[in-house]
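[job 0412] stage=complex_fold ligand=zinc ion status=START
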Amino acid sequence: MSMIHVTLPDGTVNEYAAGITCAEVITDAMGKKHGCLAAKVNGTEYDMSHVLDENCSVEGIRSDSDEGIHILRHSAAHLLAQAVMELYPDALPTIGPAIDRGFYYDFAMEPIAESDLKAIEKKMKELARRNFTVERVELSEEDLREHFIDNPYKIEIIDDKLEDGDGSTIYKQGEWYDLCLGPHVPNTSRLMFIKLTSVSPAYWRGDQDREQLVRIYGLVEPTKDALRETLHRMEEAKKRDHRKLGKDLQLFHIDEEVGQGLILWTPRGAVIRQELQDFISHHLRRQGYKQVFTPHIGKLDLYRKSGHFPYYQESQYPPLVERDLMKKLADEGCTCGELSNLMRTGEIEGYMLKPMNCPHHIKIYASQSRSYRNLPLRLAEFGTVYRWEQSGEISGMTRVRGFTQDDAHLFVTEDQIAEEVLGCIELVQIIFDKLGMSDYRVRVGLRDPDSDKYVGDPARWDKAEEACRAAAASLGVPWAEEEGEAAFYGPKIDFVVKDVIGREWQLGTVQVDYNLPERFDLTYMGSDGEHHRPVMIHRAPFGSMERFCGVLIEHFAGKFPTWLTPTQCHIITLGERHEAYATKVAHALREHDIRVEVDATDAHIKKKIKTYRKLQPASCFEGT
Ligand SMILES: [Zn+2]
Ligand SMILES: [Zn+2]
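[job 0412] stage=complex_fold status=DONE, emitting structure tokens
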């Protein structure tokens, strides 16, 4: 019998007879209660049943690791499909991946209701308890096609993914099987802690022109406690949902007649936005920024030059064409397709809702000749931009079609990059501190050393990357470099904030840019009397006011600190005879810049208290 050497994560090398499985090696090394549900062999994921017949390294994948959770989720998707097939024999399973928060599976079947999920979940638990072994079976292409002969969706996947003559694998549990590469849990009893959460329509391959399917979403966790915790967090997230709170607290409104994804800031929400703007404007002045204002539209030519058009036109509102030109073209019999072509090629002129503020700020820079003595020039604007998000992706304040960035562009010399990046980062930190967002991490996006897609001189890149690294390191929070995550025009720094219930939000960014100054041929006169190219830094600490406020509503669960809250004081009256005095007190408070409202209605005092309690931070009512 031949022997093999297996290296374990701690460096130990054990000798085993060839033919041993991962499960046996891991049990031998870690004992029976190893808590692993799959293994990595030489760094690649395999099932526990995978047979080892050469020297290799083996590492167990625990169910609570990122990789383990992924396998658990994907396995639960299989279990879901098995349960659905038992309850709805005519349904056809299509695809069922693990996702960020759980898993889903798409079925070609008659629509089902949320109330049907209970029975499916019950069936899943029953199948889990029956503890089927999950088995990997390799099949030839012919056998594969035979197995899925009644399922055109799986056949389409086989047609797409497999080279002619190649076989693949299926995973089998009981009588049920699915086309899959794995790996999976060793048996279904690992999938006891599941919860189906929702059902929604979906399209085959995400294509609205293809078949409509039924998508079932679910959650799975390795233990009962972990599942309870996840459900609690979801419950909490629901309570904090800014779309619901925004409505309850009258902070913003979205009106179908105005348009999807277009936020109407109502008076109470506008207070929050204004307070945030005032707060940041104070720090901008302190840091030497200059305020500018620019229009909401610009000529197509401008965006051709900046590169935003036509390349990103999918994510922009269609261009505006001048009325006379439009009429002339129509009279000439120009079709819509021709019109769109003419715009793309630049044969006709038009305007566009601005997708970015940068080109406008660049034109302000270029409006005068600049010398090294004028730099850095820091131009700031709360600038509103418009993007065409797909209607399916629009959500509350966090995914919208029009939003106002707390934008700024810094025009700097090469030598000023490091210090200015540091200044940008300081600003982000001040904001996070003020708002009690203490749990955040920083990502530094660097270029991929093996790619040549980047514009600008490598030595300058090295310097800018070093500046970003140093700035990130200076924050004293976790940070990571991510190679290949830079834009083609420069390295960047992203801030990812974790909220009280553990969700991550990508907020502010700082971005170095070598490209736009080149495209617009920006220059400054150096101390040597020569023309030099400035570097641009784009930065938006909040990102957008809409998104940031959405995140803030959830962060504070609608109970804003006093400086931000729309009404800082409600004066409520018991009866008519108090009204005059209440009004007098309100005036006095307003004199001191306190946001105050008087409620002199006839409503019962208890009802009034209840109403305003909902609108104020909890701490305001302690002791009442
Ligand atoms: Zn699978
Ligand atoms: Zn910009």
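The longest strand covers residues 402-412.
[job 0412] exit 0
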